[in-house]
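QA checklist item 7 of 12: single-chain prediction sanity check.
[x] sequence parsed
[x] length recorded as 140
[x] structure emitted
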Amino acid sequence: MSKIIGAEITAKVATQPRGKMMAYWSVTLLLAAAITLSGIGQLMRYGGNIDLVTKIGFPLYVTNILGSWKLLGVIAIVVPGFPRLKEWAYAGLFFLMTGAALSHAFANDYGDYGFHIILPLSYAALTIASWALRPKSRML
């Protein structure tokens, strides 16, 4: 009768290429920083946030709602775990940014060189890039 003294089983862990992981974190941290600063600015009604909102016809209290949503979305995306919440946060940020661009476009408030349209659309592009590059541990 033979006896197994020491059996070692190694499992292959699916890992992402290092370059893709670096790209994910670079894009995600850039997105998180930009949206966080934007959300804080809206909550504090700092800078031109009051003019941006009132110029397109929204009431001023909208800054509280949008600023809160932005900060909660960033937290959901950056914190590990909760893959379903991350999906909703990515979708929410995408709709928030494209909605901002469309709101400014429909109100004919393009800003200097289309800044009020280009900036939210670039944030929406960063959101898509972060979502597309996310590791398997952050997917459903």
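[x] summary fact logged: Residues 18-44 form the longest helix (27 residues).
[ ] second reviewer sign-off
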